[in-house]
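Morning run. Coffee first, then this:
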Amino acid sequence: MIQLLIAFVVVALAMPVVMRWLGRQGFFVAALVPLAGFVWTAAQGPDVLNGEYPQQTLTWVPELGLAGDFRLDTLSWIMALLVTGIGALVLIYSTRYFSRKASGLGRFAAFFVAFAGAMFGLVTTDNTLIMYTMWELTTVFSFLLIGHYRDRRASRRAAMEAIIVTTAGGLAMLGGIILLGERPGGSYSLTQLVEAGSSGLTEGASTGYVGTAIVLILLGALSKSAIFPFHFWLPAAMAAPTPTSAYLHAAAMVKAGIYLVARLAPGFADITAWQWTIIPAGLFTMVLGGYRALRQNDTKLVLAYGTVSQLGFMMVLVGYGNAGVALAGLAVLTSHALFKSCLFLCVGIVDWMTGTRDLRELSGVGRRRPILATAAGIAVLSMAGIPPFAGFVAKEAALHALTYGDGMDMVVAWVIVLGSVLTLAYGLRFWWGCFASKPGVEPTELKNRSGIILTPPVLLAGASLLLGLVPSWWESLLRGHADLSPGEPGHLTLWAGFGLPVVMTILIIVAGVLLFIARVPFEAAQRKLSIPFSAEGTYRRMIVGLENVASDVTARAQTGSQPMYLTAILSTAALAGTLSLVFGGTAVEMNYRWYDSVAQIPVVIIACGAAILAARARRRLKAVLLLSISGYCVALIYELHGAPDLALTQVLVETITLVVFVLVLRRLPSYFSNRPMATSRWFRAGLGVVVGLCVGAFAFFSANARIHVPVSADFASEAYDFGYGQNIVNVTLVDIRAWDTLGEISVVVSCAIGVASLLFIRDRKGRIDPLRNIAKPNTKYRVWRRGEDDERGRVLVQRGANHLGDYQVRAPGRNQRWLPGASTLAPQRRSVIFEVGTRLVYHTMLIGSLFLLFSGHNLPGGGFAGGLLAGIALTLRYLAGGRYELGAAMPVHPGVLMGAGLTTATVSGLFPIVLGGSTLQSAKFEFLLPVFGEVKFTTVIVFDIGVYLVVFGLVLEILRSLGAEVDRHGEVEGLDDDGSVTPTPQADRRKEAVTSREARESLS
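And here it is:
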């Protein structure tokens, strides 16, 4: 099962390339994975039927209950067969449904295969959290598939409706899953939950804890399966391509809620909240869907509302909590997937041949396409419950199980009869609309023909007939799950003897045929009947109201004032913490010491003094430098406290932060605004003092409130025993808390990409130039003297200029430039000492960064510190040689480095799973190497290399965007030193020539 899921992922990722090579024939390749899944699942049939359920476990995060437990029991086996088998047929169907010139086929195929994989994982996992993950993946992929036609407003709106409704239900379901999982005696295993429920966990819980959890889970199931009041999203989703409808809305996505209810029913169906949620909603949906289907003229919408009706029918049966009814529910689930997929595919073929789905415009199609009409006819008869098809066997089993029960069972049975009458009526109307010859309507022109596109619906129709003819064998496949529910076991049979169910069936047939005959007056009556409200209208009003409220709240809260944001955040933090201290009721001992060593006192005094002076400084650069003094003092405090690794990291971080500040300050005024000390400024100053005191108090009281042995007491030994390293800080980052580090570097990559994209967007269409400032410099300089091109005299950069001038800095006696990019700088911006010094120390710093990387597991350093040091070395190259020197020093896109680092860290964390270990588990190897002697290697070094690359790439991105790109903006805009802009003829010609400010000053 796990291997199949991996195969789905791999093929989904490969499909855009495959479709680009093969065109629509690539759907055959896409069909191979679900076909392989179908064959494998079918091969497990003997073990499943014998009760020897195949199981696989993937250790993930066992502390959180995240274990990849996969189990193939009877229900999972049936669902997996439907998901894979019908998925393969629909993909084969797609090879002819889409035209050769259709756009977006690679995207469609990738999303379709990914959806099939997520659905396969959903029905085979035994862990509720993994199931929820797969549940939401199907939601996301269904959104992408429904909105495949992105240029159509109806498709976009339908996709939004589907994802909003199903995601809202999914979030409610997640709450229920957590409630059941965290309850004493609860579990995150579906099997254990059902066993606990059936053994008495739910006694007396109809209005309590378990009842609340179950209602939340059922909200997710109802929304996913389009049960009232969430039914409206499914008909709207018919804006999707027909293959999407045939798979998602007949065999896969909408079955997820039915599957979940069927899975939990044996343990929780006796809860009152369950019964009053499932049965009324399901019955009403069945009748409402059938009623709405009778008034549709789009044949696809007829099937859509019919699907809503059938889903309500299934929801009642699988959630009823009786063995006989559950058997009928599983039979309806199976037969519905077959006949409804067949009908959707038939509608697609009719649309493909004729160009219309309007049943008023179609005529004579069945006479010229008898095989297609026959397949659709079999599917309609099976849907309507006419013998000897699968739908009849399933419906009869339901009626037999219900008519021998109490009064409530009879009410449910007669409502099902009413829904079945409507089903037969709209089924006949559908077939008549698609295939019959209508008086007064010209025979519809048929444009296309294909044997391949006809094969899937014919096979599905044949399966509907075959299951109906062998009900005993079919029953043997389903009984393993149905018998988990209490009550008399039911049976699947074509004839169970004369009785009330037979009378009901005859009534269904007669009333359904009469309703079809009277379709015209019935439609007229429907049009006259006006209902003042609808679920879809209510949804739209809620969305509009929510958007209005969100706009009002945003307008009031997001004023664009950073001081206001900080005031709100800091005030809340200070107030919440203070209230917790005051009313927490925890006794705190006032133990403290002023210092560990006398040397700490002057360092603290300098840090505080620098911070005060920074707050009072009017010059921005002065404030930044003073602030950095405080940062370096903190590093010194770490060192004096005996934490050299923290001190090293703090120094490197402070250095990079200082560089970032300076880079940004270049485009800001030199001085802060000189404003009087108004009331608002006094308030902010006071708030700063309060927050500072609160933070200090929180740290003090938190340290003194500890009553247990701190976790750090065992860090040293555990870091060495489990992480195989003596540097506690680095081992913590890459081993003990590697999950945190993986999340942090992911956030770092996302933020870096977001910031860079804002600076590198070239125009209003959002086109991005990712290679700017990366290629090696190919720009040369010419000098225009005063009066030649500009009366003020400028040094201008001009593309294609050949004259280099006399500004090369070369190594004495070797005719070699120290820094290749420095030649693009104006003379007054260059420093021979700086360039030579940078060239001398650059490679040494890189080697030092690698030393920190590989020695950091036992000595101060690590991937984070090493990456920062490498970034500082790159910073020197940029400062000495300018933005083109940055490209010469590292002609690699920062995204490549960060992506490679994130990939390396992720793969190193997942690789232990392949060897039977757990995620991010580390291992140690000892071996001998020539020269080096005995070497001890731990696998977390690979993870640390990923951190190194991410940090290095981050610094490169900072230099590229806040440094080189800001330089380019300034050159293009022709900014003077005072911030004013001097227009030039070159600037007017799209800035083909840009100004060097320092050289201009020297020539002036």
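The beta strands are 55-61, 66-71, 780-784, 794-798, 810-811, 816-817, 924-929, 933-938, 993-995. Good start to the day.
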